[in-house]
Amino acid sequence: MPHPAAVEEMAMRRFGIVFLVLLGTAAGALGARPDSYETLARAVDMSRVRKDVTYLAGLGSRVSGYPGNVAAADYILARFKALGLETYVQEFDMPTPLDQGCTLEVGGKRFEVGALWPNLVRTCQVPPEGLSGPLVYVGPGNLSDFDGKTVENAIVLMDFNTGQNWLNVPLLGAAAVVFLQPPITTRGEAETKFLQCPVNVPRFYAKGDAVAQLLALAASGEPTATIRTKVSWVNRVNRNILGILPGSDPELSREAVIYSAYYDSMSVVPRWAPGAESASGIATLLELARIYSVHRPARSIVFLATSGHFEALAGAREFVRLWGQEPRRERERHKRLRQLERAIADLEQDKASVDRELSALARKEAELNARGMPLPAHERVVHIGQLELSPEQALERKARDDRDIARLRSYVEIWNRLNQFDRIHLFLGLDLSSHSPQLGIFSCGWYFKQDHLLRFYSPLGKSLASWAEGAAERLGLDASRCFADGINPIKGREWYTFFPGKIAFDHEMIIRGGRPGVTLATANDSRNLVDTPLDSPDQMDWEALGQQVRLAACLLHKLADAPELRTEALKRVEALKKMRDLIDVRGSILEFRRRQSFVPNTPVPNALVIVQG
Question: Which of 131, 295, 303, 420 is deepest in the core (most CB within 10 A)?
Fold first, then answer.
């Protein structure tokens, strides 16, 4: 028999061999996964990001409802498809003040000008025949600058960087104001050029070569000028674009996170809204989708591109309406699906009712015509409940029902796909800009200012800060300068101190709709050119943006890859009882015609309703 010591030695050797084999296998597996911070940072191609920003900014205007917005959605959808992502499109309607062309005619020349954002609902539309008056230049627009000029019914040229001096124009009886493009401006300056009350002051913006020519014409002796416009509120289809990337781990791929960015732009002159800074987030999202399609994290990722960010976070609101509140119990999991199915059934019932009433009216009209008796005009109505519609309005209602039924069925398809995941842990928005290299994580914004939830997101902020510290060390960066934990106060510094203005984040609407959400945003950047026509790619700091994109690539991969996500980073969020504060309010705008009815029952077509709170 072998000596006991020899047996022990042989056993230890076997254990050592097995241990080394296992260690080698593990090391090989880790080495084979191309997801180190250095690899992910190197994978970022800023020339692609710059190309995307430049393309999107070159579309003219990506404001909801404008052709550039449609082109941007097409571009993003094509990019998702080219990466092999599983794509879906969510459509929703939204009203927008659409500038379809404004001109200023003077001295036999015609200049293109852009209408400014409405004063609440009052657009810059002028009478069909145009608005005519003497053309005068008042520089900064102080009251003294109007001295000696023909002001009554004048069309006033004014420098743009003049605060609210434009209010002197209606005060002194002038008809309209045309702002002249400055070499540089600020967001704050742009936001003084419209009001939150429906004051009727037509306001326009001239740019480029037109500025010098208009100044020369005004100096030649107050020639007569005429403004013609075509600006109106219209309903336009907007699209949220989804692209789903399956995770690499057989188990964790059944879980998902949502990474989102908005692709629309905004400007005080909606027709000229290049929105280069605003394109930073969506360009980064496209780059992350490209990188992660090669270096796939363990969990699945839903890439979401939204529209309507600058119209009360509309895209995020419509997405969370589709997604529904997070269920607290398994039996509640299909609650939102049942709501969507009921909505489809209601629309189909309404459509059938319209068909019956139209058929009844047609039979009645045919019977009277057979007797040689025309149907009286006041009887040529379709009754839907208490509403009295003309046949034309009834047909419009039926067409709207058809469209809404098709749309809701597509919502059901998207909901079913999202429901295939065991759990979608988090919505994370990207809201980047380029004039600061510092990235920050934020669970609170100014739209709803939900400070009371900060403590629930505290572990997530700490986890991301820890990961950022590790990534910064590997990438040769100073962690304190490249990342800010905007959830947990840093030396007493609260989240709102990282932003000079009141910023709104898409994730705020997600939280309000009953799902967890945060935003990765650029900290300590005033975003001076956002909301102005001067927000162009040549004004951007690409080096600062590049540092943010590289760090984001590392952090968001880690977030989707971390096995301890639920038990550490999201341990409080998972236990949080989610809100349900988004409620649909539906109704009809009715006119009271007292000679026709005792109650208001005549619909007002294309009515615009403002909800203020």
Answer: 303
Q: Are residues 218 and 282 in the same domain?
A: no
User: CB neighbours of 512 closer than 8 A, spacing ≥ 6?
Assistant: 320, 448, 450, 579, 581, 582
519 and 550 housed in the same domain: yes
Residues 325 and 442 in one domain: yes
Contacts of 571 (CB under 8 A, 6+ apart): 459
Q: Does one domain contain both 562 and 454?
A: yes
pLDDT in tens, 214-247: 999 999 999 999 999 999 999 999 999 999 999 9
Rounded to two decimals, the pTM is 0.91
The whole-number pLDDT of residue 369 equals 87
Mean pLDDT for the stretch of residues 377-398:
87
Specify whether 448 is located in the same domain as 543: yes
Query: What is the distance between the alpha carbons of residues 562 and 257, in angstroms, rounded to a whole number?
Result: 12
DSSP at 434:
S
With CA atoms as reference, report the closest residue to 468 among 447, 443, 486, 451: 486
Hey, what long-range contacts does 29-36 have (CB within 8 A, 24 or more apart)? Answer: 33/295, 34/294, 34/295, 35/295, 35/297, 35/557, 35/561, 36/474
Q: Please name the residues in contact with 27: beta carbons below 8 A apart, sequence gap of 6 or more.
A: none
Mark whether 571 and 427 lie in a shared domain: yes
What one-character DSSP code corresponds to residue 299? S
Any idea what the CATH number is for the domain that residue 132 is in?
A: 3.50.30.30
Q: How far is residue 343's CA from residue 20's CA, in Å, rounded to a whole number?
A: 61
Let me know if residue 294 belongs to a domain.
yes
The answer to whether residues 445 and 526 belong to one domain is: yes
Residue 359 has pLDDT above 80, yes or no: yes
Lowest mean pLDDT among 50-64, 79-93, 313-327, 583-597: 583-597
Give the span between the Cα atoms of 562 and 460, in whole angstroms. Answer: 12
Domain encompassing residue 70:
37-95+237-338+417-575
Entry field: residues in the chain: 613
324 plus 471 within the same structural domain: yes
Write the pLDDT tens digit of every residue in 452-503. 999 999 999 999 999 999 999 999 999 999 999 999 998 889 999 999 999 9
Number of domains in the chain: 2
Residue 597 has pLDDT above 50, yes or no: yes
CB atoms inside a 10 Å sphere around CB 556? 25
Does a structural domain hold residue 379? no
- State how far the Cα of 506 lies from the Cα of 309, in Å rounded to an integer: 7
Answer yes or no: are the C-beta atoms of 390 and 604 closer than 8 Å.
no
- Contact by Cβ (8 Å): 395, 371: no
- What lies within 8 Å, CB to CB, of 413 at 6+ separation is 88
Nearest-10 Cα torsion for 152, 158, 160, 165? -50
In the beta sheet, which residues pair with residue 430?
520
Tokens of 187: 């967001």
Give the pLDDT score at 35.
62
For 129, the token pair is 């025949």
